[in-house]
Amino acid sequence: MDEKQVQKRLKKTVKYAVLTVVVLLITAIFLVLFLNSTVRRTVDEQMRNETDEYVRRVNKQVSADLQLLETVASLLGDSGITESDGFSEIMEHAYEQNDFLTMGYFSASGDGVVVSVDGAQAMMLDENQTEIQSVASEAFGGKTVISDLFWSSLTDETVFVYGIPVIENGEVRGALCASDHVEIFTDILNGKRVMGGSGRIHMLSQNGDFLIRFGEAVVREKPVSIFESPYLQEYECAEIQRKMQENQETWFSFRYDRKTYRAFLEPVGINGWYLFCVNSVDESSALMLFTVKVTGCIFAGVLAIIALWLVFAQRVVRKNTRELQELAYYDTLTGANNFSYFRQLAGERMRETANCTIVSLNIHQFKFLNEMFGKERADKLLCHVADTIKSSLKYDELFCRESADYFYLFLRDTGREQIRKRLEKIMEKSAQYSADSREGYHVFLYCGAVISSKDEVVYTLDQMMTHVMFALAKAHETHQNNVWFFDTKLHEKEKMDNYVEGHMYQALENEEFLLYLQPKIDLRTGGIGSAEALVRWQKKDGSMIYPGEFIPVFENNGFCTKLDIYMVEKVCRCIRDWIDSGFDPIPISVNQSKAVLFEKDYIGRIEAAVRKYNISPKLITLEILEGAALENAEELNEKIQILKEDGFCISMDDFGSGYSSLNTLSRINISELKLDRAFLKEAAEDQNGKSKVILEQITKMAQKLHIRTVVEGVETEENDRMIRELGCDYGQGYYYGRPVSAEEFTEKLYGTKGVL
After folding, report:
1. SS3 string of 316-355?
2. How do strand 398-403 and strand 406-411 relate by DSSP bridges?
3. Distance in angstroms (rounded) separating the CA atoms of residues 451 and 467
4. Residues 6+ apart with CB under 8 A from 643
5. How would you class 426 by CB atoms within 10 Å of its CB: exposed for 0-12, middle for 13-18, buried for 19 or more?
6. Which of 488, 491, 471, 453 is closest to 350 using CA atoms?
7. Please, are residues 674 and 710 in contact by the beta-carbon 8 Å criterion?
C-alpha cells in the first residue's frame, strides 16, 4: 500500500468517525424522542385506566339503584297491592328505605302516586314533566329506562329518572319511577387524586355538552360544550362528533393558559354519556420529562468526549500508520504481501474478472535445509525465492508468503502450458541459489495450481484456495521440480477419502461393511472348492462404496487392522450359519493386511473368533500379501507356524505383482500361493511363450513344495483351459463367478446344487 492509499484510507477513517458521531447524535435524538413518546404513552395509558375505573363506578352506582327499584317493582307486582287502599302508605314506606329524591308509581291508565320529602300525593301521569312521562311510557312497554339529566320543577334541581315496569301475572300493570340528583355522580367524579392530582373528570352528553363538571375545572370560562374554545379546533370537531355519535373512545390535546393538556373521551354506556378526562401533561410527566432531558444532555456530553477522542486517535493513527501497515499487510522477512493481504487483493481482482490462476509454491524438505545450513541461510533462500517470483510477475498479478516456505501466486494467465513454463522458470531460477552457494545440495520446488476460467470452470477465491492445496499435496509426491494442476477427479477422490475417514468408525459400528464371496473353482473336480471373502461398504441410503475407494485409505491410516478382524468374524458367522442350516461348509479365505499381522494380540484375536462361533480353523484361510513377507520374514514365520498348528491355512496373495522373490517361498511356511492376475494376462497375450513357461514352472515348483496354487483373473474359456493344462489347483475370476453377497452366494451354492 503506497502513501496515497494510506492517506485515502485515513481520510475515509476520519469520514467514518465523523459519520459515527453524527449517527450517534441522531441516535441520541431518536432516543430522546422515543423516551418522550414512551412517557406520553405511559401517561395516556394511565388516563385510560383511571377513566375506566370511573366508568365502572358510575355503572356500579346505576346498577345498584336499578337493582333496588327492580326489587320494589317485583314486590309490588307479586303482591298485587297496587290497587289497594293502603298503597300510598306502602309507597311512602318504600321511599323511606332508600335515598331517591322522589318515587312514583303510575298505572297503565295514567293514575299514580308520587312520594317525596313532602309525603305521598295522588298525581296523574300527564301532570308530570315530559321527561317523567317519557320514562313511564317506555316502562309500560316492558323496558328499564334511565332518562337524561333535566331540571326538576318538583325538587328544583338537576335530576335524572329511572323507570322500571311493574309486572303482575306476566303482564305490565304499571311503571315504577324514581328520581335522583346529579350529585351522586358528582361525588364519584370529584376525586382529588385523578392522575395523582393533575387530572379532572367531567361527564358529557353524547352531543358534547357538559352534564357534570369537576369542581376545579382547567378551563375557567366553563363553556357549555367541549366543541367550544379552547378545547377543540374547528378542524377537529367533525371527527370528534362522529366518534361520539358512534360511541367510540377518542383522544385529543389542547393548550390553555400556556400549558398543554391531554384529553380522553370514553363512553359510559348509559344514554350516550361520556366521561371526559383532562390531564396536564406537564404536571403528570414532569419528573419523567426531566429525566429524558438529563439523559439527552448526558448523551450529548458523551458524544462530545467521543468526538475529541476521535480527533486525538486520528492523529495517533496518522503517526503510526506506516509501521502498522507493514505489520498488517507485509511479510517482515521477504517484503512480500502476507497471506491476509494477498487474499484481500486477490478477491478484489477476481471481482473484476474471474479469469485467473492461483498457485501454491513450496520447497521440498525445507525444514531439513534449516537444520543443515542454519536459519540465516534458509532465510536468504526464502528471500531469493521471493525476489524470483516478484521479478516474474506481470501487471495485475500478486504473490505472498504465508508462512515458512509456502508462497502463493495470483496469475492472470489461464493456459496450462503457459503457466507451466512460467512456474518451471521460477523454480529453475530459485534452484540457482543452491548452485551458486556451492553447498552441493540441490533445491527442489513443487507447485499446485488451480485455474478459474469462464471458458471452463469459474471458482470463488475460497474454492481456489482449498483446491490449490489438494494440487500441492499431489505435486509433493515426487521429489523434483513439479507442477500439478487441480482437476475435478482429484478433488472427488479427496472428497471420497475425507468421507471414508470421517465415517469409517460409525460404519463399522453400524455393520455397513458387508461380506461378499467369490468362488474358487477346484480345477480337478470342476466344483466350488472354496471362496474368497471380499468387503463391500453399503451406506444407510443403500449406495455402495467399493474397496478401491476405501481400502487404500484404511491401509494408510491403520483402520485396516480393525476391518480385517471384523471380516474374520463375519466369515466365522457365515460358516456357523451354514453349519446350523445343515449345509456342508466350504473353506473361506480372508485377506489380512500387513499392519494387522504384526499386532501383538493378532493370533489371540483370530483364535478367539473361531472359538466364539465354534468352527474349525481348517475352514479359514488367511491371505497375506507378498510385501508383508519380505519386510520381517522371521517374525511373520513364527506367527504363521502358530496359526498353522491351530489349523488355519495360510495363503500368499498377489504373488508376482511386483515384489516377487522366489526366495520368499523358502522362507515363509505357507499352504497356498495365489498368482497375480498379471501372470495369467501376460501368459495369454505372450506370442513367444516365455510368460507361459514362467507360470508353468512356478506351478510345478509350488507342487514340489506341497503348496497349492490359485490363479486369479480367469475371465475366458481360454484362460480356464490354459491353467488346467499347466496343472494349477484352483481358478478364480469372473469366468467362474463375480463376487456376490453372502446371502446370494449361499442361495446359489446350496439352493441350486452348488452351481453358480
Report:
1. HHHHHHHHHHHHHHECCCCCCECHHHHHHHHHHHHHHCCC
2. antiparallel
3. 10
4. 603, 606, 617, 622, 650
5. buried
6. 453
7. yes
Share in percent of the chain as helix, strand, coil (round to 5): 50, 20, 25
Cell of 101: 329524591
Nearest to 409 by CA among 463, 356, 488, 473: 356
Alpha-carbon distance of 152 to 131, in angstroms, equals 9
Q: Residue 369 has which C-alpha cell?
A: 535445509
Model confidence pLDDT, tens digit, residues 332-361: 999 999 999 999 999 999 999 989 999 999
Is the distance from CB of 327 to CB of 334 less than 8 angstroms? no
How far apart are alpha carbons 426 and 429 in whole angstroms? 5
How does DSSP classify residue 2?
A: -
DSSP secondary structure letters along 351-413: HH-S-EEEEEEEETTHHHHHHHHHHHHHHHHHHHHHHHHHHH--TT-EEEEEETTEEEEEES-
Question: In DSSP terms, which residues pair with 360 in a beta bridge?
Answer: 408, 448
Residue 512 DSSP symbol: -
Query: Which SS3 state, helix, strand or coil, does residue 1 take?
Result: coil
Other C-beta atoms lying within 10 Å of the C-beta of residue 95 = 22
Number of alpha carbons in the 13 Å side-chain half-sphere of residue 380: 9
Torsion of CA 689, 693, 694, 695, to 10 degrees: 100
pLDDT of residue 7: 64
Summarised one tens digit per residue, pLDDT across range 512-525 is 999 999 999 999 99
Nearest to 158 by CA among 179, 177, 176: 179
Would you call 275 exposed, middle or buried from its count of C-beta atoms within 10 A (0-12, 13-18, 19+)? Answer: buried
Contacts of 315 by beta carbon, 8 Å cutoff, 6+ apart: none
Grid coordinates representing 658 are 511386483
Tell me which residue has cell 325538587.
155
Cα dihedral sign, 227-228-229-231: negative
Separation between Cα atoms, residue 389 and residue 400, nearest integer Å: 9
Is residue 269 helix, strand or coil? coil
Number of H helices, E strands in the chain: 23, 27
CA nearest to 383, candidates 433, 333, 329: 333
DSSP 674-696: EEPHHHHHHHHH-SSSHHHHHHH
CA 110 from chain centre, in angstroms, equals 82
Residue 513's CB is within 10 A of a number of other CB atoms, namely: 18
Work out the end-to-end distance of the chain between its first and last CA atoms, rounded to an integer number of angstroms.
75
Output 672 or 40, whichever has higher pLDDT. 672
All three cell numbers of 727, joined, read 496343472
Helix (H, G, I), strand (E, B) or coil at 661: coil
Contact 269, 62 (CB under 8 A): no
Burial class of residue 728 in the structure, from the number of CB atoms within 10 Å of its CB (0-12 exposed, 13-18 middle, 19+ buried)? buried
Q: What is the mean pLDDT of residues 472-499?
A: 85
Q: Which of 88-92, 235-239, 392-396 has the lowest mean pLDDT?
A: 88-92
Q: What value, to the nearest 5°, has the Cα angle with vertex 738 and ends 736 and 739?
A: 130
In three-state secondary structure terms, 214 is: coil
CA angle 25, 28, 32 (to 5 degrees): 145
Mapped onto helix, strand or coil, the DSSP state of residue 570 is helix
